């Protein structure tokens, strides 16, 4: 990350994997109560922020399928700009935001949420806004259930709708991730009449004691997603030959843990040409944690 007075370049927005995801119930407002372990991985988007001379917030990179107005990056920037105005009475300067997008949309790897979280952390620094980590997490939650986790910035056991977070240690390993080539709409999976919503609560304090190879728990969203989107089922079946393979989030991506980078390369070499696949290392911390003066 390069830091200047007027720009913050090369700010990473890493992906996450849900090592397991249990649906335990449904709230009155329709949102689901979950238990999950979020694992950060070293594969993600890269964002670049440059101050403007006016107060406009602009995404200067075209993102097919995501109009600038509905982009979580712009919506997050607007929220923080309004919050700073509320606190100080002065509207912060506008920003041009550039993005190198590599994460698949509707992939279950949290791309949009991570972009939004990185935007909140970077602009808090660039504008010298001084919000605490907890304040940024609360600001981001209405935009997406995964945003507080990315700002929290450590492998975490999450409860509630994903906002009650507790740091846990997890196995140090590599992951092979397959993109089955479909975009899974999160709301359709949660809204399915076939979704089971009654998995008993578990108690987790140290996730590293769970075996990397056998995998803990399950992803309750997987059964619904694989029925609606056969390519997801095919990827689970193919990768399952090399270890415990499961879907992340509401899909579509499917992952399996391996011990070393060489093991990951060996699996990647065999992935059928119809799928995009990549490897990633488990991260203990978000790369931006500790980089900014607000002690995020
Ligand atoms: C499934 C996960 O990927 C796990 O990490 C996330 O909880 C989903 O997070 P997300 O993609 O940021 O989803 P949001 O944009 O917050 O919600 C999309 C839609 O999914 C449903 N939804 C989401 C999260 C949740 N705990 N219960 C839900 O029922 C709601 O219908 C919501 O309108
Ligand atoms: N910056 C962004 N990057 C990606 N998607 C965005 C962005 N802004 C808004 N979106 C919208 O959000 C939707 C979900 O995208 P995202 O990549 O976060 O899904 P996901 O990986 O399935 O997330 P999750 O694991 O949180 O469910 C996209 O289909 C897109 O319309």
Automatic annotation (TrEMBL):
Keyword Protein transport: no
GO molecular function annotation: 4-(cytidine 5'-diphospho)-2-C-methyl-D-erythritol kinase activity; ATP binding
InterPro entries on file: GHMP_kinase_C_dom, GHMP_kinase_C_sf, GHMP_kinase_N_dom, IspE, Ribosomal_Su5_D2-typ_SF, Ribsml_uS5_D2-typ_fold_subgr
Domain of life: Bacteria
Residues covered by the GHMP kinase N-terminal domain: 72-153
Alphabetized UniProt keyword annotations: ATP-binding, Isoprene biosynthesis, Kinase, Nucleotide-binding, Transferase
Pathway(s) annotated for this protein in UniProt: Isoprenoid biosynthesis; isopentenyl diphosphate biosynthesis via DXP pathway; isopentenyl diphosphate from 1-deoxy-D-xylulose 5-phosphate: step 3/6
Protein name per the record: 4-diphosphocytidyl-2-C-methyl-D-erythritol kinase
Organism: Duganella alba
Gene responsible for this protein: ispE
């Amino acid at each position: 990350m390069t830091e200047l007075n007027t720009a913050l370049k090369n700010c990473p927005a890493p992906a996450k994997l849900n090592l397991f995801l249990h649906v335990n119930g449904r709230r009155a407002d329709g949102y689901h109560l979950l238990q999950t372990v979020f694992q950060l991985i070293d594969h993600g988007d890269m964002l670049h922020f440059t101050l403007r001379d006016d107060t406009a917030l602009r995404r200067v990179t075209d993102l097919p399928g995501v109009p600038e107005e509905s982009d979580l990056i712009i919506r997050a920037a607007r929220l923080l700009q309004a919050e700073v105005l509320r606190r100080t009475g002065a509207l912060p300067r506008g920003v041009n935001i550039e993005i190198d997008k590599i994460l698949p949309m509707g992939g279950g790897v949290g791309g949009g949420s991570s972009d939004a979280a990185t935007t909140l952390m970077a602009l808090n620094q660039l504008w010298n806004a001084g919000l605490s980590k907890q304040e940024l997490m609360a600001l981001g939650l209405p935009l997406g259930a995964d945003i507080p986790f990315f700002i929290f910035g450590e492998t975490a056991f999450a409860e509630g709708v994903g906002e009650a977070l507790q740091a846990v240690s997890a196995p140090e390993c590599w992951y092979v991730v397959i993109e089955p080539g479909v975009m899974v709409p999160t709301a359709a999976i949660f809204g399915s009449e076939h979704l089971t919503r009654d998995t008993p609560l578990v108690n987790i304090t140290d996730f590293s004691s769970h075996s990397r190879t056998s995998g803990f728990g399950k992803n309750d969203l997987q059964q619904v997603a694989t029925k609606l989107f056969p390519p997801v089922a095919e990827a689970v079946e193919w990768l399952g030959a090399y270890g415990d393979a499961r879907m992340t989030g509401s899909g579509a991506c499917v992952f399996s843990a391996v011990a070393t980078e060489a093991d990951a390369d060996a699996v990647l070499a065999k992935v059928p040409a119809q799928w995009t696949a990549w490897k990633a290392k488990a991260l203990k911390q978000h790369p931006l944690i500790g980089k900014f003066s607000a002690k995020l």
